[in-house]
Amino acid sequence: MNVDGFVDYGTDIISQQSDKLVDHVLVFIFRPYHACWIQPIAVFATSGAAPTRILGQIILRAIVSLHSVGAIVTSVVSDGAQTNKGVYKAFGINASIKDLKFSIEHPVDEKTKIFFMFDMPHIMKCIRNLIFNQKQVQVESFLTGNGLDFYNALNFLF
Fold first, then answer.
1. How far apart are alpha carbons 112 and 100 in whole angstroms?
2. In this protein, which residues make up the domain named Transposable element P transposase-like RNase H (predicted)?
3. Which of 38, 69, 70, 86 has the CB geometry, 3.0–4.6 Å to 31, for a possible disulfide?
């Protein structure tokens, strides 16, 4: 798949990157909890990862737009990319034991909380790829020869 064009986050989000050529696509998907389907709801042309500030604006816009058509949004799920971590931090999400917070008030419905979480299967895939690419991984003071021992030890999780 090829994408040609310039960075575009929509008409109401201003970006300093609007003169850059596209090399990535950012896709937002809605998935109901009790259904077996997913629906792409937005696609944006980006150059690299979308900046944290812009990503946060797009997330809020997606939540409000879905709410306006009757969809109930109760969580935001993403991979562990640095920009996503930045958005979580900007929303006040914190995993510190002293200041644990993993939800925000819904921007339109104050009775609803929106929970933020990372996609664990994606994180496990990244760990697996790291092990196979690095060939050596140190975990709790022991060193595996090729990463396979550690990877096999993780199989009990699945």
1. 19
2. 4-92
3. 38
**Total of domains in the chain:** 1
**Which residue type, as a one-letter code, is found at position 89?**
K
Residue 125 lies in a domain: yes
- Residue 47 tokens read as 């150059």
- CA separation (Å) from 127 to 39, 49, 75, 114, 140? 28, 20, 24, 27, 15
Give 158's pLDDT tier (boundaries 50, 70, 90): very low
- How far, in Å, are 123, 134, 146 from residue 28 at the CA level? 18, 31, 37
Distance CA 25, CA 81 (A): 15
Domain span at residue 139 reads: 120-158
- Per-residue model confidence (pLDDT) at position 31: 93
